[in-house]
């Protein structure tokens, strides 16, 4: 595909890296020439220096014959105008824009085809808020992803010493939990992926990715690690868009406090939120954390836009007795450095957002893409179409499908029914198939599996 990316920041740069690896024709546009040179040196892509909303710059980037425009600059207005220009002057088929401000997102009809023609809206704050919310709802999980409208969840947990399954092979899971259908999609041991088989033994400290129906998730988690009680007391550092949205979602079911350093923002938050306690001060203040009884906090969420403040406040909160700390980190290089030590969960907003973008870049009927382990792997939800003659998956059992190396089918959703992906399960047209792809170079092969041909050779 010929794709133009506007914005060479964290999201634009990471996306270019993902897509360039998959042999797409990528052009990145930005006003920062130094950043573009850095990307050009690292990746095999074209770069254009200039303002992404200018017609001349878009023409120079090749918008006349581009398949897709992805506008992820830091300015909502530039992203919106770029999509308008691409539609009006160049008839670009697919236009994706990152829009952050809720002032735009809450206006119905604004992004219709006859108004501002944006095909797909991405709101990073909402994506990250949902990501954090799911982690709070599943104490002990490192990542929680939803498929088929939430019927199926993919959960990553770290196996602990003393868990019933540690030291057992995966075949034991089926015997031990005969009433629960689940499938281990992948195991990461010392940062290396293992394709799970029945005789694979789970070791302590393994990162285990498993799929199950939403109702069974807690039961499976309890087999891999000590059951943690539900989080009740939540402290949020940072009252920006993410902090506010998270508090809004949690305040009727949890005890929520927000620490915000801007007095003006504190006033606005206290007016908009119902039950949340809004505190004016610094999240890195030991005195403030002690006064607010941080040792009674179940989870401390550092969600400011400053990585250093997030890391330091998390370390301080943990040292003062917070049971769990969750830290938002923009610099992807920091994420692996800090997660798993004093900091329990580190979240990269870029990786959370990339999944939403990749869903619309994939060929075939792909309805969901989630980036896993900082982009090392992907979980994909694809819809099977056609019949045995026109499709490579329909009318075949999972064992008969020629899956690319490093790819597993974890589950199939048929209507409201969740079917765990055992070898004898037959794929039907209309099934939502959930796949786990460890080798990103195989993504194109997975897409081809779900493309329907006029005739199948």
UniProtKB/TrEMBL annotation:
UniProt cross-references to SUPFAM superfamilies, sorted A to Z: NAD(P)-binding Rossmann-fold domains, TrkA C-terminal domain-like
Cellular component GO terms, alphabetical: plasma membrane
Residues covered by the RCK N-terminal domain: 1-122, 231-347
Domain (RCK C-terminal) ranges: 142-226, 367-452
Entry-linked PROSITE patterns: RCK_C (PS51202), RCK_N (PS51201)
Gene3D superfamilies reported in the protein's UniProt record: NAD(P)-binding Rossmann-like Domain (3.40.50.720), Regulator of K+ conductance, C-terminal domain (3.30.70.1450)
Database matches in Pfam families: TrkA_C, TrkA_N
Swiss-Prot/TrEMBL keywords: Ion transport, NAD, Potassium, Potassium transport, Repeat, Transport
Segment forming the signal sequence: none
GO molecular function: potassium ion transmembrane transporter activity
Record's keyword annotation contains Ion transport: yes
Coiled coil location: none
PANTHER family (alphabetical): POTASSIUM CHANNEL PROTEIN 2-RELATED-RELATED, TRK SYSTEM POTASSIUM UPTAKE PROTEIN TRKA
Name of the protein: Trk system potassium uptake protein TrkA
Organism: Halomonas qinghailakensis
């Amino acid at each position: 595909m010929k794709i133009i990316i506007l914005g060479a920041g964290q999201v634009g740069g990471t996306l270019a890296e993902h897509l360039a690896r998959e042999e797409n024709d990528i052009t990145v546009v930005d006003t920062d020439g130094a950043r573009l040179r850095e990307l050009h040196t690292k990746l095999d892509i074209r770069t254009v220096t200039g303002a992404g909303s200018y017609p001349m710059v878009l023409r120079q980037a090749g918008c006349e014959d581009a398949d897709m425009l992805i506008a992820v600059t830091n300015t909502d207005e530039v992203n919106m105008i770029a999509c308008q220009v691409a539609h009006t002057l160049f008839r670009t088929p697919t236009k994706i824009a990152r829009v952050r401000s809720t002032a735009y997102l809450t206006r119905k009809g604004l992004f219709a085809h006859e108004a501002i023609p944006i095909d797909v809206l991405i709101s990073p704050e909402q994506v990250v808020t949902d990501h954090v919310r799911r982690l709070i709802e599943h104490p002990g999980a490192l990542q929680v992803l939803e498929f088929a409208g939430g019927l199926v969840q993919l959960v990553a947990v770290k196996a602990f010493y003393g868990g019933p399954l540690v030291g057992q092979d995966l075949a034991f899971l089926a015997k031990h939990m005969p009433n629960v259908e689940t499938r281990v999609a992948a195991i990461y041991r010392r940062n290396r992926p293992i394709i799970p088989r029945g005789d694979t033994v789970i070791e302590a400290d393994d990162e285990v990715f498993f799929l199950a129906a939403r109702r069974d998730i807690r039961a499976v988690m309890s087999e891999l690690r000590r059951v943690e009680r539900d989080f009740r007391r939540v402290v949020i550092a940072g009252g920006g868009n993410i902090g506010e949205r998270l508090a809004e979602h949690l305040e009727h079911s949890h005890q929520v406090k927000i620490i915000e350093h801007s007095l003006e923002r504190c006033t606005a938050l206290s007016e908009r939120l119902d039950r949340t306690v809004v505190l004016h001060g610094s999240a890195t203040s030991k005195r403030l954390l002690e006064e607010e009884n941080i040792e009674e906090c179940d989870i401390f969420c550092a969600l400011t836009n400053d990585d250093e403040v997030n890391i330091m406040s998390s370390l301080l909160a943990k040292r003062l007795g917070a049971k769990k700390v969750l830290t938002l980190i923009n610099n992807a290089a920091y994420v692996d450095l800090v997660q798993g030590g004093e900091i329990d969960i580190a979240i990269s907003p870029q990786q959370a957002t990339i999944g939403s973008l990749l869903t619309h870049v994939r060929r075939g009927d792909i309805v969901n893409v989630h980036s896993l382990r900082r982009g090392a792997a992907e979980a994909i939800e694809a819809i099977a179409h056609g019949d045995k003659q026109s499709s490579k998956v329909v009318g075949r059992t999972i064992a008969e499908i020629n899956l690319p190396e490093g790819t597993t089918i974890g589950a199939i959703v048929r209507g409201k029914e969740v079917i765990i992906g055992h070898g004898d399960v037959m794929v039907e047209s209309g099934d939502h198939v959930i796949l786990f792809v460890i080798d990103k170079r195989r993504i194109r092969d997975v897409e081809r599996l779900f493309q329907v041909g006029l005739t199948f050779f």
